[in-house]
Every structure is written in structure tokens, then in C-alpha cells.
Design brief:
Blueprint: H1 2-31, H2 52-55, H3 82-85, H4 88-116, H5 118-143, H6 148-176, H7 178-198, H8 205-221, H9 223-268, H10 274-312, H11 318-328, H12 334-351, H13 353-379, H14 387-440
Keywords: Cell membrane, Membrane, Transmembrane, Transmembrane helix, Transport
Biased composition (Low complexity): 41-60
Transmembrane segments: 150-171, 234-256, 290-312, 318-338, 345-369, 389-415
Length: 462
């Protein structure tokens, strides 16, 4: 309809124009001299309506002219761009969504690769933790004049010998007290049975015997599963020994050539990101070193005081339990709960309910002192992580890589927190420097200036 109305209006306009031209031509022929073209008609061109085309009833050259639509014709709005028709919030969500999908896919691939070579990754991470613990000793030995190779060998041998002696001492204590513990466990079970019979829970002896018979029947019917679990345990022991050898080998080379390994890694980083990574690396290493040292000190204090409490309460296996407390203290929060529960259970089945309650009081007291005094004072704020983040991190690490993942999860989060905080501060400072250089008409600073080149460092938060 708009197009038809436009064509109709154009035709009427042309008809009116021709009438006006013919009237002007007639008046000019009647009044003007011969040979002068009518008014409004260019010289050298025939007037409209006088040519052969008009005589034949056609428009001639005017047919090719497309006139503008009249003012009363309705306007037709053009269709908008599809991207402009989508709301801004939906477009932002879509842009963020596909990037998050790419990151999630990349993380999934990385986790698959890590799970495939899990033994190698855990061995290397353990080597990093041991190196962070032993590196200060190497620096001190080099400071007194020992060559780097000799200082590395002496430190590595001493460290591995101490770890081996601790493991041997635990096994020796367990085997030496196994007979005594078995007898005391039987006595403790009998005491628990008498306590249950005399308790207000109205437990009868027949119910206790039924529970014991069901437990024996379950063990008897699952003999094959227990045997296969034992074979699996042998396989796990072989993998553990392999991982220990890999960790020892990696620790030796990290102690000797750690700086060269870091420089080689920096060459793999893109040139634009290299200054920021070069500045974040030493700070991450300082955070890891502080975490490992502080955790060792805190774990040692926990093991000594809980072990002394267990020893004075006459609970067997006090020394092995203290060593277990030390080892499980490397798993924050969760490890303390597991080691404390183990000590309470041993006290319960060997010495009775009262001794178990006293052991529980000792464990809770030491853990409260650790959480509110030792960790803030020894670890400091730079490597502290919120308890909720610790629990979630340890759980995720345990699900992904078992006990080793639970051990390395928290230091990984602490180091990541330090690196992200530094890179954010570095990016902000570089942006401010470029802005200042633009305002004063100076060229921007070269890469590596500011924070990455030893400039002022922003405070890191946990």
C-alpha cells in the first residue's frame, strides 16, 4: 500500500507539472518572440510535452526519475540489528558464559592429564615442599664456605636420614607394643561391655553378642574382598616407594639447580606476561617456604604436647600416636580431627571411658592453643586461609588425589592467593604508570618496571 500510494502521488505530480508547462508554453507563444524557449525550460532542449515521445503518449526521460514519496505516505521503520535487539545483560551473560565454558573445559583437560600422571605430580609437589623446608639449610651451609654441590648433598642426606629414622621409629614402637596393646584392647572391650550393660541405655548381653556375631560373619563372608584389598595395598606400597624415589631425586635437583629451573620456566612464558610472572615467582616461593616452616613448627608442638598428655595418662603407643599427630597436622583442621579421634579411640579401648575423656580434653586444649595462638604467631597473615576455604580445599584435594591431594591443597591455595594478589597489584600499578606517562607526554615505562622490577609491593591479603 505505501508503494502504490507513492506511485499514484508521483503520477499526479507529473500530470500537474505537464499542465503547467503547456500553459506556460502557450502563453509564451502568444506573447513572446519566436525562437525563445518557454520559461522554466532549458535552452537547447525541447519543452516537455512537445517532443515525439509526448505525442506518442509516453513520459520519455522522466520515466527513469524516481521521485521522493509524498509527505502523507506512512514511514516504514528499518529492521534493527539482531545484536542490538538482545538486551545488554543477556549479551554480557553470554560473553561471560562461553568464556567460562572454555575455562571449564581447559581445567577438565588439565585435571585429566594430572590424574593420568598423578604419581609424578604428587612426587614433584612433595619435592617442592621438602625443598622449601631444606633450602634455608643449604643457604646457611653455603654461607659458611661449603660449595653448592657439597651443601646440597649434605642437606639432602641429613633430611632424608631424619625422615627415615622417624618412620623406622614409628614402626618399631608399634611392633614392640603390639602384644601389650592387643591384651589391653581385649580388657578394654570387656570393660566397655560391662559399662554398656550397666549404662542407662538398657543394652542386654544378647544384643552385644549379636553385634559381635554379625561382625565376625561379615568378616568371614568378605574374606575374598579383604584379600583383594590386601593385594591392592601391596600395589599401593609399590607406588608409594616409586613416588618416594621420584620425590628424593626431584628434591636433590631442585636444591642444586632450583634457580636454573625457574629461569627455564620463565622462558616458556609469553614476553608480555614475563615481568609479572618473574615478580610473582619469588613471592610465591617465600609464601610456600613460610607455610612449610610454620606448619612443621606447629605440628611438632602439637605432637609433643599431645604425646606428653597421652603418656602421662598411661595410654599405650604414646610415641607412635604423637608421630601420627605430627604427620596429620600437615592437613589443616581435618588432620587434627583425625589424629585426635585416633588417640581418643585408642585410649577408650585400652584404658576406659574416663581416660578417653581426659585425652579428648588434652587434644581439644592443644588444638585451641594452636588455632588461636600458634598459627597466627608463627604462620602470620600472609599464608593464612579462611577455615571454610581450608575445609573445602582439603575436601576437594582429597576427592581428586586422595591423601596427597589433601596435604598439598592448602599450600597450593596459599600460593595461588599470593600470586593473584601480586598480579592484580602489578596490573593496577602498570596502568597508573601508563596513565601518568600519557598525561605528561612521556613514553610509557618499559615492561618489568614498577612492582615487577622491585618497586613498592602492595600488601597481600588472605
Amino acid at each position: 500500500m505505501p508503494g502504490w500510494l507513492g506511485r499514484l502521488g508521483a503520477g499526479l505530480s507529473r500530470m500537474g507539472q505537464r499542465f503547467e508547462e503547456r500553459r506556460a508554453q502557450a502563453e509564451a507563444e502568444a506573447d513572446g518572440p519566436v525562437g525563445v524557449p518557454p520559461a522554466g525550460v532549458p535552452s537547447g532542449k525541447p519543452a516537455a510535452g512537445t517532443g515525439p515521445a509526448d505525442a506518442a503518449g509516453t513520459d520519455g526521460p522522466a520515466r527513469d526519475i524516481v521521485p521522493a514519496p509524498p509527505a502523507y505516505a506512512p514511514a516504514v521503520a528499518a529492521r534493527p540489528d539482531p545484536a542490538a535487539a538482545v538486551p545488554w545483560g543477556v549479551r554480557v551473560a553470554a560473553e561471560a558464559g562461553w568464556r567460562l565454558l572454555v575455562l571449564a573445559g581447559t581445567l577438565w583437560v588439565v585435571m585429566k592429564v594430572i590424574s593420568t600422571v598423578q604419581l609424578v605430580v604428587l612426587a614433584f609437589v612433595a619435592a617442592l615442599l621438602i625443598t622449601a623446608l631444606l633450602q634455608p639449610t643449604v643457604s646457611r651451609l653455603r654461607g659458611i664456605g661449603l660449595p653448592r654441590g657439597l651443601a646440597t648433598v649434605v642437606t639432602a642426606i641429613l633430611g632424608f636420614v631424619v625422615m627415615g629414622l622417624v618412620g623406622w621409629f614409628v614402626v618399631w614402637q608399634v611392633m614392640d607394643n603390639l602384644g601389650n596393646v592387643s591384651a589391653r584392647v581385649r580388657d578394654g572391650i570387656e570393660e566397655l561391655k560391662r559399662w554398656a550393660l550397666d549404662s542407662p541405655f538398657h543394652v542386654t548381653e544378647s544384643q552385644i553378642n549379636d553385634i559381635a556375631e554379625n561382625l565376625s560373619a561379615t568378616i568371614g563372608t568378605n574374606t575374598e574382598e579383604i584379600t583383594s584389598a590386601g593385594l591392592t595395598g601391596v600395589t599401593v606400597m609399590v607406588e608409594v616407594m616409586t613416588g618416594i624415589l621420584l620425590a628424593m631425586f626431584s628434591t636433590l635437583f631442585l636444591l642444586y639447580d632450583g634457580k636454573k629451573v625457574w629461569q627455564w620456566f620463565l622462558r616458556l612464558v609469553p614476553a608480555q606476561a614475563r615481568p609479572g610472572v618473574a615478580g610473582a615467582g619469588p613471592r610465591a616461593w617465600r609464601t610456600l617456604t613460610a607455610y612449610v616452616r610454620g606448619t612443621v613448627v606447629v605440628a611438632l608442638i602439637d605432637a609433643v604436647f599431645i604425646g606428653l598428655g597421652i603418656y602421662f595418662l598411661d595410654v599405650p603407643l604414646a610415641v607412635p600416636l604423637g608421630v601420627f599427630v605430627f604427620l596429620f597436622s600437615f592437613i589443616p583442621l581435618v588432620g587434627a580431627v583425625i589424629s585426635g579421634a585416633l588417640a581418643v579411640v585408642v585410649a577408650l579401648v585400652t584404658n576406659g571411658v574416663f581416660t578417653a575423656l581426659m585425652v579428648l580434653v588434652v587434644v581439644l586444649a592443644v588444638q585451641q592453643i594452636e588455632g588461636h595462638v600458634l598459627q597466627p604467631f608463627i604462620l602470620g597473615r600472609a599464608v593464612r586461609v579462611h577455615p571454610l576455604a581450608v575445609v573445602l580445599t582439603v575436601s576437594a584435594g582429597g576427592l581428586v588425589a586422595g591423601l596427597g591431594g589433601a596435604v598439598v591443597a592448602v599450600p597450593l591455595v596459599a600460593v595461588t592467593n599470593t600470586v593473584v594478589g601480586y598480579l592484580r597489584a602489578y596490573s593496577e600499578e602498570q596502568a597508573l604508570r601508563r596513565l601518568a606517562a600519557t598525561h605528561v607526554g612521556m613514553p610509557p615505562p618499559p615492561p618489568g618496571g614498577g612492582v615487577g622490577a622491585g618497586g613498592p609491593e602492595r600488601p597481600e591479603t588472605a
